[in-house]
Amino acid sequence: MEFHIKDPGLAEKGRLRIEWAAMDMPVLARIREEFARERPLSGIRIGACLHVTTETANLALTLKAGGASVALCASNPLSTQDDVAAALVAEGIPVFAIRGEDRETYYAHIKAVLDTRPHLTMDDGADLISTLHAERPEQAAEVLAGTEETTTGVIRLRAMARDGALRYPVIAVNDALTKHLFDNRYGTGQSTIDGILRATNRLLAGSIFVVAGYGWCGRGLALRARGMGARVIVTEVDPLKALEAVMDGFEVMPMEEAAERGDFFCTVTGDLAVIRKEHFLRMKDGAIVANSGHFNVELDLEGLREISERVRRIRDHVEEYTLKNGRRIYVLAEGRLVNLAAAEGHPSAVMDMSFANQALCCAWLVKHASELEKKVYPVPEEIDRRVAEMKLNAMGIRIDRLTPEQEKYLSSWEMGT
Q1: What is the per-residue pLDDT across 186-223, written as a single tens digit (0 to 9) for each?
Q2: Which end of the chain has fewer CB atoms < 10 Å from its terminal CB, N or C?
Q3: 335 is in an annotated binding site
Q4: Residue range 250-275: average pLDDT?
Q5: Is 194 one of the annotated binding-site residues?
Q6: 53 labelled binding-site residue
Q7: Per-residue confidence at 295, pLDDT binned at 50, 70, 90?
């Protein structure tokens, strides 16, 4: 397949939306100008499995400006923006993604990207790299290196490295400070609330909002829910994160207790079966349940079906499960990423930093991949700091610099009080 999208006729609408997003992505725009001059990716084929959004489109165009041949598929069946896919195809970038595609088509699209024989892989959730390793191990030897965008994918890749299964080095872009401190916290916080409100049009003020997981995404979501007037409960398995949530002013308790109290529930853990049958059975009539972790496994939907006597679609992105006890549970976006399935994903301003890291890491890997072992690496500190500096410059913000005396003091042990 040269490409597989819903409708090439949507290209003009997509082009305008990509342009709108670009207005709030000044760091990536500067990198694109630099790439166009220096062409650091000339001759490099990049296979990307990412959410096909306006922000991703600007990343793909930046990589193309750097000389790369880019092929793109979706990292989630419900996150594709079909007009954006059409616009990228019109720009000569093969895209294999259709919003709402079934599982078979989803993996056929991943294999179509692998058919382009990429030198670099770019993942959001590690489905591309896991498919490559499981089904085409001989092809993995052709890959120089890869990058991974999200927490779930990094967890999977570290497990592969630990088991000796990883066949090439991968940079965990998710772990860059300019990614997870901003994208995960402010991006997930805002976009998840946006998705829940678009799907339900319910009032958050005065409600009880249960956040499962207090990593950076959970912190952002709890913060934004409280900002909308909700009373927030946090559930955790990590005592340090639970303690932090308490110190941040949130109630903390097991999901078993929270299930009886919550009006809204949202999982952001990266693990499976966080909300299970026993929790659904305790929920009040009308409880709204969503997920903003990468995969829909965070909600035990099979278990929910087992205890339900009827399931119906009551409005866009809302499925009503009527339990055998008569109570109704409302699941948003089929349990998939609610911020992308029911809304548009993270704001462009935070994806600007995330995708700046992606682009610069690709150029860095072209130069240094041969020096690396087959394991997961952090984003080089110089890239992380450069992205932060570029973002501050774009915002018109200046900061202090250390004086020579201060630098000497910080690097010495002789000087005391």
Answers
A1: 999 999 999 999 999 999 999 999 999 999 999 999 99
A2: C
A3: no
A4: 97
A5: no
A6: yes
A7: confident
